[in-house]
Specification:
The chain is of the alpha/beta class. It has eleven helices and eleven strands. Helix 1 crosses helix 2.
Length: about 290
């Protein structure tokens, strides 16, 4: 698009963006072009259909051009936009947070009935999310259950700032507390549910990840130690003093980690209650109870 005129129509801007992305070998160039053009022009899919000849100004064209350049160098489209939708919620991103992905919605779906039942029975459901990042998991649960409250813990101050912003933007700040803590180190009290999407990539595999993950997701949120299982050992060893009677632990896992993670928690006195697959049919979420 750098070679286009200072103004362009909505349809022309989309075609130019799509062609640049396709030429750079970007996957799904039409979808990414549409997301970028709509975001920076403030238009919608309906606008593209009803007013394709709508003229975009020079400032909009420049913003689209800069975004397309970033995408052609490998930066994920949602990093460029600065947000991503998760469980129907708009969540802002920052360099210190993972980009929430649809696979993690599997964990939310798995625990939601337990959160609802607990809230109705106890009058509230207290949730602890370890490594909260954007706050995606607890905020999704709070958005569905009015009697739920949550603490989102993270070692990254930048991530906590982003999680707080998301809670505020979603009108959930009165039920969400962002807490700086290295796992359980600064956590007090007991919870009905402990959840986590922890780092679970073995250290040796980080360099082989796809570029959009390796170069743009924070390694602190990816690296699970030599075998990718260190965070699960920490959670299994430290959870009991922070669980209410009848409380449960829900975890996201790597596609090949079910047996190992189940073994770690079995040794710590927990049994696997539920296991769920993601959209691709891979093991993705485990639910443990004592």
């Amino acid at each position: 698009m750098a070679e286009t005129a200072k103004t362009a129509t909505l349809s022309g801007a989309f075609r130019a963006a799509r062609d640049r992305l396709a030429g750079a070998g970007v996957d799904n160039p039409a979808l990414d072009a549409r997301l970028i053009v709509e975001h920076f022009s403030g238009t919608t899919r309906k606008d593209a259909i009803l007013m394709p000849d709508h003229v975009l100004g020079a400032d909009v064209i420049a913003a689209i051009d800069a975004a397309i350049t970033r995408r052609t160098t490998g930066e994920p489209v949602h990093r460029i936009l600065g947000f991503r939708e998760f469980y129907g919620l708009k969540l802002y991103l920052s360099p210190e947070t993972l980009e929430p992905r649809p696979d993690t919605e599997t964990l939310v779906d798995m625990v939601l009935p337990f959160v609802r039942e607990t809230a109705e029975r106890e009058g509230e459901c207290r949730i602890l999310d370890l490594g909260t990042g954007t706050g995606a998991i607890p905020l999704a649960l709070l958005s569905q259950v009015e009697k739920a409250v949550a603490v989102g813990a993270d070692i990254s101050q930048g991530a906590l700032t982003t999680a707080r912003r998301n809670a505020e933007e979603l009108g959930l700040a009165n039920r969400f507390t962002a807490k700086k803590s290295d796992w359980f180190a600064k956590i007090s009290g007991r919870f009905h549910l402990i959840v986590s999407n922890p780092p679970y990539i073995p250290s040796k595999d980080i360099d082989g990840l796809e570029q959009d993950v390796r170069d743009f997701d924070p390694h602190l949120a990816l690296d699970g130690g030599d075998d990718g299982l260190d965070p699960y050992r920490i959670i299994a060893a430290g959870a009991a003093p922070h669980l209410e009677r009848g409380g449960k632990i829900a975890l996201e896992i790597g596609f090949d980690q079910r047996i190992d993670v189940t073994g770690i928690f079995r040794e710590a006195g927990y049994e696997l209650a539920v296991a769920r697959h993601d959209l691709a049919g891979n093991d993705r979420a485990l639910f443990f109870q004592r």
